[in-house]
Amino acid sequence: MIRVLRAFTFHMPSLSVGLTFMTLSILFGSWLARLPEVQAGLMLSEGQLGLALLGLPLGALTVMPLAGWLIEKLSTGKAMTIATLLFCAVLPIPAFATSQLTLMASLYVVGLANSFMNVSMNAAAAAVESQYRVTIMSACHGMFSLGAMIGAGSAGLIAAADIPLRAHLIVLALLMVVLQLVLRPITSTLPHSSAGGSSFALPPRSVWGLALIGFCIMIGEGAVADWSAIYLRNVLLSDPFVASLGFAGFSLSMALGRFAGDGIRQYLGAPRTVFAGSLLGAAGLSIATLLPHPATAVLGFTIVGLGFSTVVPLLFSAAAKMPGVTPGAGIAAVASAGVIGFLIGPPLIGFIGEHFGLGAGLGFVAVLALAAAGIARRSLVNQQLI
After folding, report:
1. Global pTM value
2. Is 1.20.1250.20 the CATH classification of the domain at 201-386?
3. Domain segments of the chain: what residues?
4. N or C: which end of the chain has fewer CB within 10 A?
5. 3-state DSSP call for residue 138?
6. At the topology level of CATH, where does 1-194 sit?
7. In this predicted model, what pLDDT tens digit does every residue of 256-285 receive, in sequence order?
8. Hey, what long-range contacts does 299-304 have (CB within 8 A, 24 or more apart)?
9. What 8-state DSSP symbol labels residue 380?
Protein backbone atom coordinates (compact mmCIF):
# COMPACT_ATOMS: atom_id res chain seq x y z
CA MET A 1 0.00 0.00 0.00
CA ILE A 2 2.87 2.38 0.84
CA ARG A 3 4.36 1.75 -2.60
CA VAL A 4 1.08 2.65 -4.29
CA LEU A 5 0.70 5.84 -2.25
CA ARG A 6 4.25 6.82 -3.17
CA ALA A 7 3.37 6.36 -6.84
CA PHE A 8 0.53 8.84 -6.37
CA THR A 9 2.75 11.26 -4.50
CA PHE A 10 5.65 11.41 -6.95
CA HIS A 11 3.99 10.60 -10.28
CA MET A 12 1.86 13.49 -11.51
CA PRO A 13 -0.15 11.60 -14.18
CA SER A 14 -1.16 9.05 -11.55
CA LEU A 15 -1.99 11.80 -9.07
CA SER A 16 -4.15 13.66 -11.59
CA VAL A 17 -6.22 10.54 -12.29
CA GLY A 18 -6.50 9.70 -8.59
CA LEU A 19 -7.72 13.21 -7.79
CA THR A 20 -10.31 12.93 -10.55
CA PHE A 21 -11.63 9.73 -8.96
CA MET A 22 -11.81 11.65 -5.70
CA THR A 23 -13.61 14.58 -7.36
CA LEU A 24 -16.44 12.33 -8.52
CA SER A 25 -16.88 10.73 -5.12
CA ILE A 26 -16.67 13.96 -3.08
CA LEU A 27 -19.48 15.43 -5.16
CA PHE A 28 -21.58 12.31 -5.20
CA GLY A 29 -20.99 11.52 -1.51
CA SER A 30 -22.14 15.03 -0.60
CA TRP A 31 -25.37 14.57 -2.55
CA LEU A 32 -26.10 11.14 -1.07
CA ALA A 33 -25.53 12.29 2.52
CA ARG A 34 -28.22 14.97 2.10
CA LEU A 35 -30.73 12.78 0.28
CA PRO A 36 -33.01 12.55 3.37
CA GLU A 37 -33.59 16.32 3.09
CA VAL A 38 -34.68 15.91 -0.52
CA GLN A 39 -37.05 13.10 0.41
CA ALA A 40 -38.56 15.15 3.22
CA GLY A 41 -38.80 18.31 1.14
CA LEU A 42 -40.64 16.54 -1.69
CA MET A 43 -42.67 14.42 0.77
CA LEU A 44 -41.77 11.15 -0.97
CA SER A 45 -42.34 7.69 0.45
CA GLU A 46 -39.59 5.05 0.23
CA GLY A 47 -41.26 3.56 -2.83
CA GLN A 48 -41.59 6.93 -4.56
CA LEU A 49 -37.98 7.83 -3.77
CA GLY A 50 -36.81 4.44 -5.02
CA LEU A 51 -38.55 5.04 -8.34
CA ALA A 52 -37.02 8.52 -8.62
CA LEU A 53 -33.56 7.12 -7.89
CA LEU A 54 -34.01 4.84 -10.89
CA GLY A 55 -33.20 7.88 -13.06
CA LEU A 56 -29.50 7.69 -12.15
CA PRO A 57 -28.75 4.16 -13.43
CA LEU A 58 -31.03 4.72 -16.44
CA GLY A 59 -28.88 7.68 -17.41
CA ALA A 60 -25.73 5.65 -16.84
CA LEU A 61 -27.05 2.80 -18.97
CA THR A 62 -27.94 5.21 -21.79
CA VAL A 63 -24.42 6.56 -22.21
CA MET A 64 -22.44 3.36 -21.54
CA PRO A 65 -22.56 2.08 -25.17
CA LEU A 66 -21.27 5.49 -26.35
CA ALA A 67 -18.63 6.17 -23.69
CA GLY A 68 -15.87 4.09 -25.27
CA TRP A 69 -16.45 5.69 -28.67
CA LEU A 70 -16.37 9.19 -27.15
CA ILE A 71 -13.07 8.49 -25.39
CA GLU A 72 -11.63 7.12 -28.64
CA LYS A 73 -12.60 10.32 -30.47
CA LEU A 74 -11.60 12.84 -27.80
CA SER A 75 -8.42 11.25 -26.38
CA THR A 76 -8.21 9.95 -22.82
CA GLY A 77 -7.20 13.11 -20.95
CA LYS A 78 -9.54 15.42 -22.84
CA ALA A 79 -12.48 13.04 -22.37
CA MET A 80 -11.80 12.78 -18.63
CA THR A 81 -11.62 16.57 -18.23
CA ILE A 82 -14.78 17.23 -20.26
CA ALA A 83 -16.68 14.51 -18.41
CA THR A 84 -15.58 15.90 -15.03
CA LEU A 85 -16.59 19.47 -15.88
CA LEU A 86 -19.91 18.20 -17.20
CA PHE A 87 -20.55 16.27 -14.00
CA CYS A 88 -19.72 19.35 -11.90
CA ALA A 89 -22.21 21.35 -13.97
CA VAL A 90 -25.13 18.95 -13.62
CA LEU A 91 -24.73 17.63 -10.05
CA PRO A 92 -26.56 20.55 -8.35
CA ILE A 93 -29.61 20.17 -10.63
CA PRO A 94 -31.45 17.56 -8.47
CA ALA A 95 -31.40 20.00 -5.55
CA PHE A 96 -33.83 22.14 -7.56
CA ALA A 97 -36.33 19.31 -8.13
CA THR A 98 -39.93 20.15 -7.24
CA SER A 99 -41.54 16.72 -7.65
CA GLN A 100 -40.80 13.02 -8.00
CA LEU A 101 -40.81 13.35 -11.79
CA THR A 102 -38.40 16.29 -11.91
CA LEU A 103 -36.11 14.54 -9.41
CA MET A 104 -36.04 11.43 -11.59
CA ALA A 105 -35.39 13.51 -14.72
CA SER A 106 -32.58 15.48 -13.09
CA LEU A 107 -30.97 12.29 -11.79
CA TYR A 108 -31.16 10.86 -15.30
CA VAL A 109 -29.04 13.81 -16.48
CA VAL A 110 -26.61 13.26 -13.59
CA GLY A 111 -26.42 9.58 -14.55
CA LEU A 112 -25.40 10.47 -18.11
CA ALA A 113 -22.48 12.58 -16.88
CA ASN A 114 -21.61 10.14 -14.11
CA SER A 115 -21.26 7.21 -16.51
CA PHE A 116 -19.15 9.17 -19.00
CA MET A 117 -16.86 10.36 -16.20
CA ASN A 118 -16.65 6.87 -14.66
CA VAL A 119 -15.64 5.19 -17.91
CA SER A 120 -13.21 7.95 -18.92
CA MET A 121 -11.33 8.05 -15.63
CA ASN A 122 -11.04 4.23 -15.51
CA ALA A 123 -9.71 4.33 -19.07
CA ALA A 124 -7.24 7.00 -18.00
CA ALA A 125 -6.07 4.88 -15.07
CA ALA A 126 -5.58 1.89 -17.38
CA ALA A 127 -3.66 4.04 -19.87
CA VAL A 128 -1.34 5.38 -17.17
CA GLU A 129 -0.72 1.84 -15.89
CA SER A 130 0.14 0.64 -19.40
CA GLN A 131 2.30 3.61 -20.41
CA TYR A 132 4.27 4.12 -17.20
CA ARG A 133 4.34 0.53 -15.86
CA VAL A 134 2.74 1.50 -12.55
CA THR A 135 -0.10 -0.15 -10.62
CA ILE A 136 -2.72 2.43 -9.66
CA MET A 137 -6.16 1.00 -10.50
CA SER A 138 -6.92 -0.37 -7.04
CA ALA A 139 -5.51 2.78 -5.43
CA CYS A 140 -7.65 4.97 -7.71
CA HIS A 141 -10.74 3.14 -6.49
CA GLY A 142 -9.40 3.64 -2.99
CA MET A 143 -9.17 7.38 -3.70
CA PHE A 144 -12.79 7.22 -4.87
CA SER A 145 -13.89 5.68 -1.57
CA LEU A 146 -11.79 8.15 0.40
CA GLY A 147 -13.43 11.02 -1.45
CA ALA A 148 -16.88 9.61 -0.76
CA MET A 149 -16.05 9.55 2.96
CA ILE A 150 -14.88 13.18 2.80
CA GLY A 151 -17.96 14.22 0.87
CA ALA A 152 -20.43 12.43 3.14
CA GLY A 153 -18.73 13.46 6.38
CA SER A 154 -18.44 17.11 5.42
CA ALA A 155 -22.01 17.12 4.11
CA GLY A 156 -23.23 15.97 7.51
CA LEU A 157 -21.49 18.88 9.20
CA ILE A 158 -22.75 21.32 6.57
CA ALA A 159 -26.31 20.03 6.94
CA ALA A 160 -26.07 20.31 10.73
CA ALA A 161 -25.06 23.96 10.23
CA ASP A 162 -28.30 24.53 8.27
CA ILE A 163 -26.50 25.51 5.06
CA PRO A 164 -28.97 25.04 2.16
CA LEU A 165 -28.39 22.05 -0.11
CA ARG A 166 -28.41 24.14 -3.29
CA ALA A 167 -25.68 26.50 -2.06
CA HIS A 168 -23.67 23.57 -0.72
CA LEU A 169 -23.62 21.66 -4.02
CA ILE A 170 -23.02 24.72 -6.20
CA VAL A 171 -20.03 25.94 -4.17
CA LEU A 172 -18.58 22.42 -3.96
CA ALA A 173 -18.98 21.90 -7.71
CA LEU A 174 -17.19 25.20 -8.40
CA LEU A 175 -14.30 24.15 -6.17
CA MET A 176 -13.99 20.88 -8.09
CA VAL A 177 -14.00 22.84 -11.38
CA VAL A 178 -11.06 24.89 -10.10
CA LEU A 179 -9.21 21.68 -9.21
CA GLN A 180 -9.75 20.30 -12.72
CA LEU A 181 -8.46 23.50 -14.29
CA VAL A 182 -5.34 23.24 -12.12
CA LEU A 183 -4.86 19.63 -13.23
CA ARG A 184 -5.52 20.39 -16.91
CA PRO A 185 -1.82 20.80 -17.92
CA ILE A 186 -1.20 17.28 -16.62
CA THR A 187 -4.36 15.55 -17.85
CA SER A 188 -3.88 17.00 -21.35
CA THR A 189 -0.68 14.94 -21.68
CA LEU A 190 -2.11 11.62 -20.46
CA PRO A 191 -1.43 8.67 -22.79
CA HIS A 192 -4.24 7.57 -25.07
CA SER A 193 -6.38 4.54 -24.20
CA SER A 194 -8.08 2.39 -26.79
CA ALA A 195 -11.49 2.21 -25.14
CA GLY A 196 -13.66 1.85 -28.21
CA GLY A 197 -16.66 -0.42 -28.42
CA SER A 198 -19.70 -0.98 -26.32
CA SER A 199 -19.36 -0.85 -22.56
CA PHE A 200 -22.52 -2.92 -22.09
CA ALA A 201 -22.66 -6.62 -22.94
CA LEU A 202 -24.52 -9.75 -22.00
CA PRO A 203 -22.19 -12.05 -20.04
CA PRO A 204 -20.66 -15.01 -21.87
CA ARG A 205 -21.46 -18.33 -20.19
CA SER A 206 -17.94 -18.68 -18.81
CA VAL A 207 -18.29 -15.51 -16.70
CA TRP A 208 -21.83 -16.04 -15.44
CA GLY A 209 -20.59 -16.79 -11.94
CA LEU A 210 -18.54 -13.60 -11.83
CA ALA A 211 -21.45 -11.60 -13.26
CA LEU A 212 -23.89 -12.96 -10.66
CA ILE A 213 -21.53 -12.07 -7.83
CA GLY A 214 -21.07 -8.60 -9.31
CA PHE A 215 -24.84 -8.21 -9.61
CA CYS A 216 -25.38 -9.02 -5.91
CA ILE A 217 -22.45 -7.02 -4.57
CA MET A 218 -23.12 -3.91 -6.66
CA ILE A 219 -26.74 -3.90 -5.54
CA GLY A 220 -25.31 -3.87 -2.02
CA GLU A 221 -22.95 -0.99 -2.75
CA GLY A 222 -25.80 0.98 -4.28
CA ALA A 223 -28.09 0.17 -1.37
CA VAL A 224 -25.69 1.61 1.20
CA ALA A 225 -25.08 4.66 -0.99
CA ASP A 226 -28.78 5.37 -1.60
CA TRP A 227 -30.40 4.25 1.63
CA SER A 228 -27.95 4.32 4.58
CA ALA A 229 -28.53 8.00 5.41
CA ILE A 230 -32.30 7.61 5.00
CA TYR A 231 -32.32 4.51 7.22
CA LEU A 232 -30.37 6.32 9.95
CA ARG A 233 -32.39 9.54 9.63
CA ASN A 234 -35.94 8.26 9.17
CA VAL A 235 -35.95 4.83 10.81
CA LEU A 236 -33.41 5.26 13.60
CA LEU A 237 -34.18 9.00 14.06
CA SER A 238 -30.55 10.18 13.96
CA ASP A 239 -29.58 13.81 13.53
CA PRO A 240 -28.23 14.88 10.10
CA PHE A 241 -24.57 14.49 11.07
CA VAL A 242 -24.96 10.97 12.47
CA ALA A 243 -27.08 10.02 9.45
CA SER A 244 -24.17 10.93 7.19
CA LEU A 245 -21.76 8.70 9.12
CA GLY A 246 -23.21 5.47 7.73
CA PHE A 247 -22.07 6.20 4.19
CA ALA A 248 -18.92 7.95 5.46
CA GLY A 249 -17.91 4.86 7.47
CA PHE A 250 -18.72 2.61 4.53
CA SER A 251 -16.56 4.76 2.24
CA LEU A 252 -13.65 4.94 4.70
CA SER A 253 -13.50 1.17 5.11
CA MET A 254 -13.86 0.76 1.34
CA ALA A 255 -10.85 3.02 0.86
CA LEU A 256 -8.75 1.19 3.44
CA GLY A 257 -9.73 -2.18 2.01
CA ARG A 258 -8.87 -1.14 -1.53
CA PHE A 259 -5.53 0.39 -0.57
CA ALA A 260 -4.71 -2.89 1.21
CA GLY A 261 -6.34 -5.04 -1.48
CA ASP A 262 -3.16 -6.39 -3.04
CA GLY A 263 -1.87 -7.59 0.32
CA ILE A 264 -5.20 -9.20 1.22
CA ARG A 265 -5.27 -10.98 -2.12
CA GLN A 266 -1.74 -12.29 -1.67
CA TYR A 267 -2.58 -13.59 1.82
CA LEU A 268 -5.96 -15.22 1.10
CA GLY A 269 -5.86 -15.72 -2.65
CA ALA A 270 -8.38 -14.11 -5.00
CA PRO A 271 -11.20 -16.72 -4.68
CA ARG A 272 -11.19 -16.71 -0.88
CA THR A 273 -10.96 -12.93 -0.80
CA VAL A 274 -14.16 -12.68 -2.87
CA PHE A 275 -15.87 -15.27 -0.65
CA ALA A 276 -14.77 -13.66 2.62
CA GLY A 277 -15.60 -10.15 1.41
CA SER A 278 -19.12 -11.14 0.37
CA LEU A 279 -19.67 -12.92 3.69
CA LEU A 280 -18.38 -9.94 5.67
CA GLY A 281 -20.69 -7.62 3.74
CA ALA A 282 -23.67 -9.81 4.59
CA ALA A 283 -22.64 -9.76 8.25
CA GLY A 284 -22.37 -5.95 8.27
CA LEU A 285 -25.82 -5.50 6.73
CA SER A 286 -27.23 -7.95 9.28
CA ILE A 287 -25.73 -5.95 12.14
CA ALA A 288 -27.17 -2.71 10.72
CA THR A 289 -30.69 -4.14 10.39
CA LEU A 290 -30.99 -6.66 13.23
CA LEU A 291 -29.49 -4.32 15.86
CA PRO A 292 -31.42 -1.12 15.03
CA HIS A 293 -29.43 1.56 16.85
CA PRO A 294 -27.49 4.43 15.23
CA ALA A 295 -24.14 3.23 16.60
CA THR A 296 -24.58 -0.38 15.48
CA ALA A 297 -25.95 0.75 12.11
CA VAL A 298 -22.90 2.93 11.45
CA LEU A 299 -20.67 0.02 12.55
CA GLY A 300 -22.58 -2.37 10.30
CA PHE A 301 -22.29 -0.14 7.23
CA THR A 302 -18.58 0.31 7.95
CA ILE A 303 -18.13 -3.48 8.02
CA VAL A 304 -20.01 -3.73 4.71
CA GLY A 305 -17.50 -1.37 3.11
CA LEU A 306 -14.56 -3.42 4.38
CA GLY A 307 -16.11 -6.60 3.02
CA PHE A 308 -17.13 -5.28 -0.38
CA SER A 309 -13.96 -3.23 -0.95
CA THR A 310 -11.90 -5.88 -2.74
CA VAL A 311 -14.67 -7.87 -4.42
CA VAL A 312 -15.48 -5.82 -7.53
CA PRO A 313 -11.84 -5.01 -8.47
CA LEU A 314 -11.06 -8.74 -8.23
CA LEU A 315 -14.08 -9.61 -10.36
CA PHE A 316 -12.92 -7.19 -13.06
CA SER A 317 -9.41 -8.64 -12.91
CA ALA A 318 -10.73 -12.21 -13.14
CA ALA A 319 -13.10 -11.37 -15.99
CA ALA A 320 -10.22 -9.86 -17.99
CA LYS A 321 -8.24 -13.11 -17.65
CA MET A 322 -11.04 -15.64 -18.24
CA PRO A 323 -10.01 -18.21 -20.89
CA GLY A 324 -11.92 -17.94 -24.14
CA VAL A 325 -13.15 -14.40 -23.45
CA THR A 326 -11.46 -11.17 -24.54
CA PRO A 327 -10.57 -8.82 -21.65
CA GLY A 328 -12.97 -6.15 -22.90
CA ALA A 329 -15.88 -8.59 -23.20
CA GLY A 330 -15.26 -10.04 -19.74
CA ILE A 331 -15.04 -6.68 -18.00
CA ALA A 332 -18.06 -5.34 -19.91
CA ALA A 333 -20.08 -8.40 -18.86
CA VAL A 334 -19.36 -7.91 -15.15
CA ALA A 335 -19.92 -4.14 -15.43
CA SER A 336 -23.22 -4.73 -17.23
CA ALA A 337 -24.40 -7.09 -14.51
CA GLY A 338 -23.62 -4.34 -12.00
CA VAL A 339 -25.59 -1.79 -14.03
CA ILE A 340 -28.56 -4.16 -14.09
CA GLY A 341 -28.22 -4.45 -10.31
CA PHE A 342 -28.22 -0.67 -9.96
CA LEU A 343 -31.32 -0.53 -12.18
CA ILE A 344 -33.21 -3.07 -10.11
CA GLY A 345 -31.90 -2.08 -6.68
CA PRO A 346 -33.39 1.37 -5.94
CA PRO A 347 -37.04 0.62 -6.80
CA LEU A 348 -36.86 -2.89 -5.32
CA ILE A 349 -35.49 -1.71 -1.97
CA GLY A 350 -37.92 1.21 -2.02
CA PHE A 351 -40.85 -1.15 -2.66
CA ILE A 352 -39.81 -3.50 0.14
CA GLY A 353 -39.18 -0.53 2.43
CA GLU A 354 -42.59 0.98 1.78
CA HIS A 355 -44.46 -2.25 2.49
CA PHE A 356 -42.30 -3.99 5.08
CA GLY A 357 -39.92 -1.30 6.40
CA LEU A 358 -36.56 -0.07 5.16
CA GLY A 359 -34.80 -2.46 7.53
CA ALA A 360 -36.38 -5.35 5.62
CA GLY A 361 -35.22 -3.84 2.34
CA LEU A 362 -31.63 -3.67 3.56
CA GLY A 363 -32.03 -7.15 5.05
CA PHE A 364 -32.88 -8.43 1.58
CA VAL A 365 -29.59 -6.99 0.36
CA ALA A 366 -27.84 -8.96 3.12
CA VAL A 367 -29.40 -12.11 1.67
CA LEU A 368 -28.04 -11.19 -1.77
CA ALA A 369 -24.55 -10.71 -0.30
CA LEU A 370 -24.85 -14.12 1.35
CA ALA A 371 -25.87 -15.57 -2.02
CA ALA A 372 -22.77 -13.97 -3.57
CA ALA A 373 -20.63 -15.67 -0.93
CA GLY A 374 -22.29 -19.00 -1.77
CA ILE A 375 -21.64 -18.54 -5.50
CA ALA A 376 -18.04 -17.57 -4.79
CA ARG A 377 -17.57 -20.61 -2.58
CA ARG A 378 -18.96 -22.99 -5.17
CA SER A 379 -17.69 -21.60 -8.45
CA LEU A 380 -14.51 -19.76 -7.47
CA VAL A 381 -12.98 -21.35 -4.38
CA ASN A 382 -13.84 -24.97 -5.16
CA GLN A 383 -13.07 -24.74 -8.90
CA GLN A 384 -10.23 -22.18 -8.56
CA LEU A 385 -11.56 -20.07 -11.45
CA ILE A 386 -9.64 -16.96 -10.40
Report:
1. 0.80
2. yes
3. 1-194, 201-386
4. N
5. helix
6. Growth Hormone; Chain: A; (1.20.1250)
7. 888 887 778 778 887 888 999 999 999 999
8. 299/249, 301/224, 301/228, 301/246, 301/247, 301/249, 301/250, 302/249, 302/250, 302/252, 302/253, 303/253, 304/220, 304/224, 304/250, 304/253, 304/280, 304/369
9. I
